[in-house]
Write a structure and sequence with these properties.
Length: 260
């Protein structure tokens, strides 16, 4: 017989993102150990379908055990995440979504926990509330960035862009420049200068702050890695590719971007 559940807290907040972006985020199990690296260390998908998803999730700290969690979509406004195995087994977290416009969704989260010791409900509820405030802060930033990129995507004439004296440019690297209506980052790879797209082709994640390691950048949202020279996807295995980048041309001590 299942243990009775105690509602230990309710967390409510407006999220400055539309309902479509929120549901993208809810279904996106893959981002948990990347965007929320302070809370989760790993995730392995068990099952995914129209009803939601189930996965084994490694929690922080590093030594903590994995849990088995399922997220079930109950309606177009409500979903529940249930811990099936591991720490907190039997816990249910119910989330209700209320759209308030194109760029706002009100969120209400109820935390239902089994076997709550007498007098511990407030302490447990405070822990859940603090965790979810942090998770929604991080998710909101991702959703807003994605909305901005979707709204601003466009193509302009690919005219050459003067980058100034070579020495001054090297001192400014890495530097983001718009070319053909899209943002690219100029980086040094050894003695060579090259440009790469700052938008991950997976979900338009930001690559402009990512370090170039072994000739590649990794998206902070989902960990997808791309070769900065070819744009080819390196991990996980797939066929995604960074947007074609212009080339850096150096003549008479000055640099410019030109279409390939």
């Amino acid at each position: 017989m299942a243990s009775p559940l105690t509602r230990v807290a309710v967390y409510e907040r407006p999220v400055q993102a539309g309902l479509e972006r929120v549901w993208e985020n809810v279904r996106d199990w893959e981002h948990l150990p990347w965007l929320h690296s302070g809370s989760f260390r790993s995730i392995a998908l068990v099952e995914e379908a129209g009803w939601g998803w189930k996965a084994r999730i490694g929690l922080r700290p590093e030594a903590g055990p994995e849990i088995l969690l399922e997220l079930v979509i109950e309606s177009d406004r409500r979903y529940v995440s249930r811990t099936l195995e591991g720490a907190g087994a039997g816990t249910e977290i119910w989330t209700t979504l209320e759209p308030r416009g194109a760029d706002r969704t009100d969120v209400r989260v109820e935390f239902l926990v089994p076997d709550v010791p007498e007098g511990a409900a407030d302490r447990i509820g405070e822990g859940y509330t603090a965790l979810y405030a942090q998770l929604w802060d991080e998710d909101e930033e991702m959703m807003q960035w994605r909305s901005q990129q979707l709204a601003s995507r466009g193509v302009a004439p690919a005219v050459p862009v003067d980058l100034g004296p070579l020495g001054a440019l090297r001192a400014q690297l890495p530097r983001v420049v718009e070319f053909g209506g899209r943002p690219f980052r100029i980086v040094a790879d050894g003695e060579d200068l090259l440009a790469h797209s700052v938008l991950c082709p997976h979900m338009l994640g930001p690559l402009d702050g990512c370090a170039v390691e072994d000739g590649a950048v990794a998206c902070p949202w989902h960990g997808y890695r791309f070769d900065v020279r070819s744009g080819r996807q390196l991990a996980p295995e797939g066929r995604l590719r960074l947007a074609p980048a212009p080339r850096v041309v150096i003549e008479a001590g000055r640099a410019r971007l030109e279409a390939r």
